[in-house]
Design a protein that fits this description.
There is one protein chain. The chain is of the alpha/beta class. It is 36% helix and 21% strand. The protein is built from 14 helices and 26 strands. The strands form eight sheets. Strands 15-18-19-14-13-21-22 form a seven-stranded mixed sheet, with helices on both faces. A five-stranded parallel sheet has the order 10-9-8-11-12, with helices on both faces. β9 (183-187), α7 and β10 form a beta-alpha-beta unit. The mean pLDDT is 97. Bound molecules: 2-aminohexanedioic acid (UN1). 2-aminohexanedioic acid binds next to loops. Homotetramer.
Length: 513
Amino acid sequence: EKPFGIKEALSALGIQDINNGSSTGSENFASGDIIESYSPVNGSLISKVKSTSKADYEKVMEKATEAFKIWRKIPAPQRGEIVRQFGNKLRDLKEPLGKLVSYEMGKSYQEGLGEVQEMIDICDFAVGLSRQLHGLTMHSERPGHRMYEQYHSLGVVGIISAFNFPVAVWAWNTALAWVCGDVCVWKPSEKTPLCGIACQNIAAAVFKENDLPEGISCLINGDYKVGEMMTNDSRIPLVSATGSIRMGKIVAQAVASRLGKSLLELGGNNAIIVTPDADIKMTVIGAVFGAVGTAGQRCTSTRRLIIHESIYDKVKEALVSAYNQLRIGNPLDEKNHVGPLIDTEAVSLYKQALQKVVEEGGNLIVEGGVLEGEGYESGCYVKPAIAEAKNEFEIVQHETFAPVLYLLKYSGDVENAIEIQNGVVQGLSSAIMTNNLREAEKFLSIAGSDCGIANVNIGTSGAEIGGAFGGEKETGGGRESGSDAWKVYMRRQTNTINYTTELPLAQGIKFDL
Ligand code: UN1
């Protein structure tokens, strides 16, 4: 009764009918309520996970805290070797894991494979990084003194991830945290708990094969109450959380109240500016993939197109004709472009957005709607929609996690488009389509895009792991993945060493005894 080779995938990944949602590695336990995971693909129950009780959580934290004392002393390149082995296991299991991501979350199988590839890529990046966790040396103002800085492991890192990237976001955090000498406790979304179980099984096998202690990779499961156990726990110096702005504000306040660190990856309201010098063909491909890929459920999804009035009708027509060609259906069938939304609650939010944009004076040029009938029994399949709207509409200001694209018109100079692009509370991803160097450079300048990601002639989604990933303003300011994002997973220490027999004081202060 489990179609599309899912049964084989589940068995390759060690998923049982009922899984223990608390784990310290190979030790699995749990005494909380049952979470049932239903596939948005066909509405059927995939399997169940027992959630984490307070007592289970304590057991996890005890093991994690003990494991940290051992793991931090293993040289970083040796920790990198473990991450290399983990990356290789992901290579072996890319197809079953990609399939589970697609079946449990609903994104296309291609995107499921892409997500696992992102995990493999960050592992490779982390392995190289394990030989480079470098600080700086400085010149001391005092003779016979040496000054430098070094990075030490931080401790137990808490990871809270969202349903839309149910495996990759964990890997971005955990691969870096592990080479940095941290241990991780992960709470995946309660909408995709099986992806969490599968990843934990893969990691556990690697730690076990290397005779490493329980607790370097830990898993907990449940709703926000389980997340709160981590945000309120002063044994966790860093909480990395991906999700809504609403969730991020709660997490940030809880963590800040105990002066912990948080790394936040929250909502986006990403726009592509289309100038008179844009390549229309590239624009359409970039915009359509950005808006309908992952059924509009990426934090980097394209929500707004800001189009110059002189090419507005041309772009609009090209978009409508592209949308007419979209095939919506089972994401495991590679002929389809768009799969289901995560659940029927998301479908309601999608419907509300379409209703609201019309109420506010918008005009639906691709109507959208919920699909019914054969193949759509889960009730989660919707048609991507396009609305002509204004940036100041309340609904346009708001991130709806669904394939709804807003067309906004600008006139005059590119500065006007940049003002619209920046005129939202979110600041994750942005893009400009232009062959005009002046426009592109203005967009990238200090007076340009205010987002963490700003692209030229590329859409808003699909970032590579090598760059730091994250955004400004209400997106939360965190940076994950590449560049020097690793630094947040470590504590910095400044060291000054005196190799003379004198004790001169800094700033020339005299203090004689
Ligand atoms: C997310 O939606 O939370 O840039 C992450 C992208 C992907 C990651 C998105 N690499 O679209």
